[in-house]
Design a protein that fits this description.
With 187 residues, this protein is mainly α. 53% of the residues lie in helices and 3% in strands. It has 6 helices and 2 strands, in the order H-H-H-H-E-E-H-H. It has helices spanning 18-35, 42-46, 56-74, 100-120, 145-171, 175-183, and strands spanning 127-129, 142-144. A two-stranded antiparallel sheet has the order 1-2. The longest helix has 27 residues, at 145-171.
């Protein structure tokens, strides 16, 4: 099954001001990321095309997990501590039994849930305590919900760059060309 081209950004309930703008930027970055995986087969999504371990399916899987994880921080359901044994060794890889379509569904569901939580959050300045990971500093981290939202944006943007390189090495497709074609009504 071939995935569809990126859809309109999530976060379709406009709100005035900063929150609307921040959610629009995150949604736009998600859309840009999805151009890098549009039209791939499962085999292509699993293929390493660079010296890195990164694959396009693994990046989709990872970003779905990132959004779910940060949602749990915002809604207060995150585990207070995550150890090495708690981390999924295949969390950044698309394994043979997985499909890109399933990972895209999980990505979209996570994006929708994360955006809904941010839209419904009464105070972007509310502080949340971060879970402790093996690489965390000794003192507990505390961020605002706004900081979490900006961090999710940074994560998606960071991995969008990876996805562009992996896709170009895989089959020569250019995310920028795909975006331009879509903007002109051709894709």
């Amino acid at each position: 099954m071939e995935p569809t081209a990126p859809t309109a950004p999530t976060g379709s309930h406009p709100q005035p001001g900063e929150r609307r703008d921040l959610l629009a930027m995150v949604a736009d970055q998600r859309t840009n990321f999805l151009y890098a995986v549009a039209g791939l087969t499962d085999e292509q999504a699993r293929t390493r095309s660079t010296v890195s371990e990164l694959t396009l399916g693994g990046l989709v899987k990872h970003l779905a997990s990132v959004q779910r994880t940060w949602l749990s921080v915002v809604d207060g359901t995150a585990a207070p501590e995550v150890g090495w044994a708690d981390l999924d060794p295949d969390g950044n890889r698309m394994t043979d039994g997985e499909t890109l379509a399933a990972h895209l569904d999980a990505f979209h569901a996570a994006a929708e849930a994360f955006d809904r939580a941010v839209r419904e959050e009464p105070d972007l300045d509310r502080e949340v305590t971060l879970p402790r990971y093996p690489w965390s500093p000794p003192q507990p981290g505390v961020w605002t919900v706004r900081h979490v939202l900006l961090h999710v944006f940074r994560e998606i943007a960071h991995h969008s760059g990876h996805a562009d390189i992996v896709r170009e090495a895989l089959d020569g497709a250019s995310t920028t060309e795909q975006m331009a074609k879509a903007a002109m009504g051709g894709g």
